[in-house]
Amino acid sequence: VLRLGPLGQRQEVGGVALAHRPPRPRRLEPLRGVLAQGLQQPVARLAVGVLLGRGTPVAVRVPVMPQRAPADVPALARAALSARPELAAQASARDAAELQLRAAWLRLVPQLSASAAVFAQDVALPTGQKEGWRAALELSWALYDGGFRYGRVRQAQGAVAGARAQAEAQRLQIAQEVEDAARDLEVAHERLALAEEGMRLAREASATARRGFEAGVVGSLDVLDASDRLYAADVSHAEARARVGIAAAALERAAGGPT
């Protein structure tokens, strides 16, 4: 009589208990670092170079993990306000608007003009001299021109107010971008820490499943399930590292670094 039991448990054949030991599972290669190691091979380097439009091999190096956001975020925001080119452009636009306002006001003041001339002629003057000079000083003041000049003044005042408002809005936006980027970097580091903890637990679970399978306690499906969870944890860890890099680049850009 043959009685089949669950995989890894004792069975009975003709009333005799037998210990069934499943075959050893094939050792799975670790997933972490396979892609990075493959990209360092000569053929892979040449393939990456072709994809990038270059005729020479290109080596892909894993960058150093960025540090956490600095604790003094307001100081970083002040540094960004002096380094970002957007503020310089807004300041130039504001100065131009203020100069236009000054020119509009100057149109309201009286205009003073002076001229001088020296002349010589063949016919003598009543004084008996043939040479002479002339000097003139003219003062003119337009009292009313239909309100055109006052309209230009009000237009220039509105342009100055708009330029100042845009400069202030740009300043607030840059400070907010720095704060948001610093917060995103901190959150990315927290997610990376959680991903590292999840990967550590997945490795322990995978190792426990392997040992149980070799001892005949668990089945092969449990080993595959643990391997799948380890793979998912490894992918999550890689995504978390990528988020940290993106957040660090965003913070550097917001602080006035290279774009």
Description:
By secondary structure, the protein is mostly helical. Helices cover 58% and strands 12% of the residues. The protein contains 6 helices and 5 strands; from the N terminus they run βββααααββαα. Strands 1-2-3 form a 3-stranded antiparallel sheet, with no helix packed on it. A two-stranded antiparallel ribbon has the order 4-5. A hairpin with a 2-residue loop joins β2 and β3. The N terminus is likely disordered.
Q: Which descriptors apply to this entry?
A:
single chain; 259 residues; mainly alpha; three-stranded antiparallel β-sheet; two-stranded antiparallel sheet; 6 helices; 5 strands; elongated; disordered N terminus
Task: Outline the secondary-structure elements.
Blueprint: E1 2-3, E2 10-13, E3 16-19, H1 34-38, H2 42-51, H3 73-83, H4 85-106, E4 111-120, E5 131-140, H5 148-214, H6 220-254
Antiparallel strand pairs: 1-2, 2-3, 4-5
Helix pairs in contact: 3-5, 4-5, 5-6
Oligomer type? single chain
Q: In angstroms, what separates the terminal alpha carbons?
A: 77 Å
Binned, the helix content reads 55-70%
How much of the sequence lies in strands comes to 5-15%
Global morphology:
elongated
- Gyration radius (Cα, Å) is 41 Å
Most strands sheet: 3 strands, antiparallel
Which strand order does the major sheet show? 1-2-3
